[in-house]
């Protein structure tokens, strides 16, 4: 049984005008059942990596598999089972991550009632 939930093979991202890659080539496997942290200083590439894993940003080289899906080739299938909430959401900036889904749920309930 393969219990890998995330597999990275040489995953890399560069942005124009930068000398160093935003995400240097990464190779790793993250297994189910473990708590894994992604830590580093500002500008280390954490958000860029998360955006690539969520299928929101295409890597320049390498590949990734997230719960069996290629985030770029199978983005629709991945998005059906993956939730991603960035730190800076852009909408309702004053709400916490936990409050945002509650506000959407409240909107849907009001919409169903016609209010």
Automatic annotation (TrEMBL):
<keyword id="KW-0547">Nucleotide-binding</keyword>
<keyword id="KW-0813">Transport</keyword>
<dbReference type="GO" id="GO:0016887">
    <property type="term" value="F:ATP hydrolysis activity"/>
</dbReference>
<keyword id="KW-0067">ATP-binding</keyword>
<dbReference type="Pfam" id="PF00005">
    <property type="entry name" value="ABC_tran"/>
</dbReference>
<dbReference type="GO" id="GO:0005524">
    <property type="term" value="F:ATP binding"/>
</dbReference>
<dbReference type="InterPro" id="IPR050763">
    <property type="entry name" value="ABC_transporter_ATP-binding"/>
</dbReference>
<feature type="domain" description="ABC transporter">
    <location>
        <begin position="25"/>
        <end position="100"/>
    </location>
</feature>
<protein>
    <submittedName>
        <fullName>ATP-binding component of a transport system</fullName>
    </submittedName>
</protein>
<dbReference type="InterPro" id="IPR027417">
    <property type="entry name" value="P-loop_NTPase"/>
</dbReference>
<dbReference type="InterPro" id="IPR003439">
    <property type="entry name" value="ABC_transporter-like_ATP-bd"/>
</dbReference>
């Amino acid at each position: 049984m393969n219990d890998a939930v995330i597999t990275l093979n040489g995953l890399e991202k560069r942005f124009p005008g930068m000398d160093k890659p935003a995400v240097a080539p990464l190779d790793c496997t993250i297994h189910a059942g473990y708590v894994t942290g992604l830590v580093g200083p500002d500008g280390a590439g954490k958000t860029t990596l998360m955006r690539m894993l969520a299928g929101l940003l295409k890597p320049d080289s390498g590949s990734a598999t997230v719960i069996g899906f290629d985030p770029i080739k199978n983005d629709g299938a991945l998005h059906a089972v993956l939730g991603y909430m960035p730190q800076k959401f852009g909408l309702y900036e004053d709400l916490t991550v936990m409050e945002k889904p509650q506000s959407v749920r409240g909107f849907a309930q009001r919409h169903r009632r016609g209010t």
